[in-house]
UniProtKB/TrEMBL annotation:
Residues 20-29 have a biased composition (Polar residues). GO terms for molecular function: 2 iron, 2 sulfur cluster binding; metal ion binding; oxidoreductase activity, acting on NAD(P)H. GO terms for cellular component: cytoplasm. The keyword NAD does not apply. This is Rieske domain-containing protein. The lineage of its organism: Eukaryota, Sar, Alveolata, Ciliophora, Intramacronucleata.
């Protein structure tokens, strides 16, 4: 594959704020025993972890010096299946999570590698702890990541027992995450994996292949011009966020593990017989195995006036940047839809502008009723109302009006009622991007690409994941297609 054009890559910064500190279980100061002999590695050697690649600032090296033992004063009081947070150093966040599983005591990093939530406030089941924020899961034995939406594991620290007391060996500088061991490309391995789509499913697939010791070629074709970013923040940080800070991986990380990300490349066809992907620029990419993870696009309702200036859909980082700019100059903002996108958008606008702008929400039911029922939806409605938004429940938008210059200035409900609007944001769900798979002749089902339980399509060399995959749900026995960030990550893995 010859990359003939230069692509734009957005820089990445770490914007994950550490959650509010939890109180240590015991107020007894940590008992620190300095190591005087040759020190063992502070992180347990597990198959899920590996020393870092030094040039990657996302990598976390397993410390081999400046370590010490700290007595876990209350560890012998732990019952089976219990956990606690223990302070092990002078720093505010120098803590470990201690858990007991099958009679053994384990210690891992105390904070989730995703958004920094204290894991002690989560749930422990079997040998896994679930984060209280977004249910990312980690092994208490190794610190390895078990469930999305996290990207990395947390450090694991050896625990020893002496004279009836437990001690944990920790570095003086506590790290926040642990990168899983990954293979690199072996030129002798000619197997080529191509991934169409550079989002949650596509990135996770590429990383999981390397974590599984796949040494063949990995090519990712992404239509977007930005490195993979956390799409969930588009609505959560709509009015002030900067998508260039939300990258899930930096280009240097991907290069280190020979994951070839090609930005700004649109796949327009798949030739199953020759096993080639046709690109919009006329070039082709051959494959041995192919994953289609093209996601979805924001659904555009056929409402008159939907194409006026200052009427936006929200799906990409470019959409968010345009809305952010328009919102700064708008006085009356109308949000259409009360699902996740609509509700988070209204909440963010309320928080950002706090009464300085008129925020309206138009919805055909109480917010989030589709997902959580009327009672929970009524709670969301109350919160929006309390924070100053005007919510029009059980209403449909029938028309968007404009001024003499082609810009929106009003929206019209089916009752004929008009709402002034300088900016309209439409959150009407998504449409799965199945056209590529459909044109290739793959079997379709439930508005998606039909797969078996292993996400394999009707062509054994082609797989589908994320928003487009329709798979047999073992819980219900029926075909399921899930439009959700975490589901896409899990399927990609």
């Amino acid at each position: 594959f010859n990359q003939s054009k230069k692509v734009e890559e957005l820089p990445s910064e770490d914007t994950k704020d550490v959650a509010q500190e939890s109180q240590p279980v015991s107020q007894t100061p940590p008992v620190i025993v300095e190591k005087k002999e040759e020190a063992p590695a502070a992180i347990s050697p597990a198959k899920d972890t590996a020393p870092a690649v030094k040039e990657q600032k996302e990598e976390v090296a397993a410390p081999t010096a400046d370590i010490h033992d700290v007595e876990l004063t209350d560890a012998n009081k732990l019952e089976e299946g219990e956990m606690m947070e223990v302070k092990v150093g002078a720093g505010k966040q120098d803590k470990v999570l201690v858990a007991k599983f099958k009679g053994e005591v384990y210690a891992i990093g105390a904070y989730c590698s995703h958004f920094g939530a204290p894991l002690a406030k989560g749930v422990l089941f079997d040998d896994k702890v679930m984060c209280p924020y977004h249910a990312a899961g980690f092994s208490v034995k190794t610190g390895a990541l078990e469930f999305a939406p996290g990207r990395d594991g947390v450090p694991s620290y050896p625990v020893t027992q002496k004279d009836g007391k437990y001690f944990v060996t920790v570095p003086k500088k506590m790290e926040k995450k642990q990168i899983a061991k990954m293979a690199k490309r072996d030129p002798e391995n000619k197997t080529k994996m191509v991934i169409i789509g550079g989002g949650a499913a596509g990135l996770n697939c590429a990383e999981t292949l390397r974590q599984s010791d796949f040494t063949g070629e990995i090519v990712v074709l992404s239509e977007e011009k930005a490195l993979p970013y956390d799409r969930t923040l588009l609505s959560k940080q709509l009015a002030k966020g900067n998508a260039s800070k939300w990258s899930l991986r930096e280009s240097g990380f991907l290069d280190s593990y020979d994951i070839d990300y090609h930005l700004g490349y649109k796949a327009v066809g798949i030739d199953k017989a020759s096993q080639q992907v046709q690109l919009a620029d006329g070039s082709t990419v051959s494959y041995d195995k192919l994953l289609i993870a093209t996601g979805g696009r924001a659904f555009k309702p056929p409402t008159p006036g939907i194409d006026l200036d200052n009427v936006f859909l929200l799906r990409t980082s470019e959409d968010q940047a345009n809305i952010k700019k328009a919102a700064a100059n708008a006085k009356n903002i109308v949000v259409v839809g009360a699902g996740f996108i609509g509700s988070e958008t209204v909440a963010n606008l309320q928080k950002t502008y706090s009464g300085k702008k008129n925020v309206h929400m138009v919805c055909d039911a109480v917010p989030m009723e589709k997902y959580f029922g009327y009672d929970v939806g009524a709670m969301f409605l109350h919160e929006h109302d309390k924070n100053g938004a005007k919510v029009y429940v059980n209403h449909d938008l029938t028309k968007i009006k404009y001024d003499g210059e082609g810009k929106v200035n009003k929206v019209v409900l089916e009752s004929g009622y008009e709402i002034p609007a300088d900016l309209v944001i439409v959150g009407a769900g998504i449409a799965p991007n199945v056209e590529l798979a459909e044109s290739a002749g793959l079997t379709m089902e439930a508005r998606g690409v039909k797969t078996n339980p292993f996400l394999q399509t009707s062509d054994p060399n082609i797989f589908a994941a994320g928003d487009i995959a329709s798979f047999p749900n073992w819980h219900t026995g029926s075909t399921t297609r899930i439009e959700h960030w975490i589901a896409a990550q899990d399927q990609g893995s």
